[in-house]
């Protein structure tokens, strides 16, 4: 099959500030919500959620503990120090797009300052200028699991409406500063995480008081409004800016052809797509209002909110895709397997990764086609990749043929969807370079095409080495996708 990828397809890699940069207390950066999340071993989802979502006592203890020993996201993979070397490697890889995020805490350390921190602004400006010189387009997320910790402890995170204004000030600052250097902006990473894991997505702490689900829905509403306001502001500041939303697409299959299972899967899909219904179509679907009603959730809205959502929908829809899930009215009848923030009914037709995530390339084609059919706006796959334990051979090489196989099989399905007419702007594989895992904070759960010599304790040289997948992806990009068939 000849390639279906257009010449301007945005081939790239993706990572987030809180997982890559490190340097958590350098050049005026404030503590972020990610900086107080400790290392967690995978497996027990109850324990994982407790660690990912620290209670007020754990946060207070972490906030007064200096150093990086117990908090891996404070050290990341040293991108803040080694970014120049990393950009050269990305240039060698031949990527056209780098999806990354700005750490809000480098710009406004507590979120409340009247003036931004120039050292933080200057860091990203240097980075964007270098990317521009290397012909790499930044795709910039404004909020990727990283809000100032001060706003978590003093405001209750996004559940407090005042955070909208603080976020607008931060967004306005960077949208003005980086005109001419950035084109693509994403407002919130995986905005549906605010419901699945309210601390990670919305800075909503579990303090033991009732009503956390309601606070999470309130926080999500504030994020939707903030996203719409920032989208409007971006258009005012620079009409060439293109602003997208970002969803963790969780495609659900029915466990059986029993209509009750099929309806359950449809419901679960619709709840996932409710987020993009708001951000792409501009209104909450009935299924969400029913959920609020039946669960006693009273989302407080100001009179203009629904108009703001309706008038400021996004230019494109970006999403992450790692796995598919299975819906059943009686899930206990089936075995379970893992996900990044939850476990799901096991699909007997699919293999799983070392972390128990379903591997499902065809699901990506289904997800693409389904999103395109539903929304008819350009799509962008901004995360897809394999978390695996890599082995470094004696000669220093990393033969990650399993990652090559993963990427190839997913990209073959991407090509199929595009051949069917899906409008796809690009594909940025997660994480390009090894970084700290979002869920478990492990370093040894590696996604990169570039190996970083650091272990779970942060020990190692930090040196970078290209893996087998690096050379494969480099050749693929250079051929415009043609070597998929090689
Ligand atoms: C996505 C996040 O959910 O999944 C990333 O946007 C994250 O930040 C990625 O790293 C993979 O998850 P994990 O937990 O394996 O790092």
Overall SS class: alpha/beta
Could you tell me how far the N terminus lies from the C terminus, measured between alpha carbons in angstroms? 11 Å
Ligand set: 6-O-phosphono-beta-D-glucopyranose
Domains (count): 1
Question: How would you portray this structure in words?
Answer:
With 486 residues, the chain is α/β, with parallel strands linked by helices. It has one domain: TIM Barrel (Alpha-Beta Barrel), CATH 3.20.20. It is 41% helix and 15% strand. It is built from 17 helices and 17 strands. The chain has helices at residues 17-20, 45-52, 56-63, 79-93, 104-107, 118-133, 149-155, 162-177, 193-196, 198-202, 212-237, 259-281, 286-294, 305-311, 361-375, 401-419, 468-478, and strands spanning 10-14, 97-101, 137-143, 184-188, 242-248, 251-254, 316-320, 324-327, 336-338, 343-345, 351-352, 358-359, 379-383, 424-430, 432-433, 448-452, 464-466. Strands 1-2-3-4-5-7-13-14 form an 8-stranded parallel beta barrel, surrounded by 4 helices. Strands 15-16-17 form a 3-stranded mixed sheet. A hairpin with a 4-residue loop joins β9 and β10 (343-345). α4 (79-93) packs parallel to α6. The longest helix is centred in the middle third of the chain and has 26 residues, at 212-237. The mean pLDDT is 95. Bound molecules: 6-O-phosphono-beta-D-glucopyranose (BG6). 6-O-phosphono-beta-D-glucopyranose binds at residues 16, 19, 189-190, 248, 320, 340, 383, 387, 430, 437-439, 445.
